[in-house]
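Researcher: I'd like a structural prediction for the single chain below. Treat it as a standalone chain; there are no partners to consider.
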Amino acid sequence: MRGVFADSAQFALPGARARLRGLALARGAALSRRKFGARPIGWQMFRQGSGVSDPGSSGKRGVMSTITEAIDVDVPIRVVYDQWTQFESFPQFMEGVREIRQLDDTHVHWVIDVAGQVREFDATITEQHPDERVAWTSDSGPNHAGVITFHRLDDEKTRVTAQMDVDPDGFVENVADKLGVLGHRVKTDMKKFKEFIEHRGHETGGWRGEVDRPIP
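Model: Treating it as a single chain, here is the predicted structure.
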């Protein structure tokens, strides 16, 4: 029977051939959806590669906005990076960070206060390479993800760049310029980190382990 239908298709009228092609394409798309799921494969690869979380992955949906801030620190790159791995020290220089608990090498719990509104969330470290980068994504609470990169400028100077993708509505309510509030907070925290580590001159601790990027 398969051979009969194949031969018939060769002599079908143009309109019939078009309908047959349409049916074949529809069947292929349905099989693809069953195999890979409804979300585009490209988004999953982007998410895994950059640490950016899927707004619909935890039932939360919102417009994601990007915040980018960079600052030059007059401290060697190893000291700067090692200090950044000490998450539980963040309340010492990050405004509004009440507490951070390191649950294990790749999981942390945050308690923050933004414009008088307390938020708690868990986050996963999705990628970490000494003196290069630390990337994370939220597992609960406000929907966000980000990456901190470290660039050696010379033996005594390091550029630290923060890029965060956030849903402002998840962090701040009843404030007109929500993204502006968050952007100002990130800028202020970067300056306070610079002051903190330059004043100390050395790190409070450090973790030099590797966390590889998840495989899509």
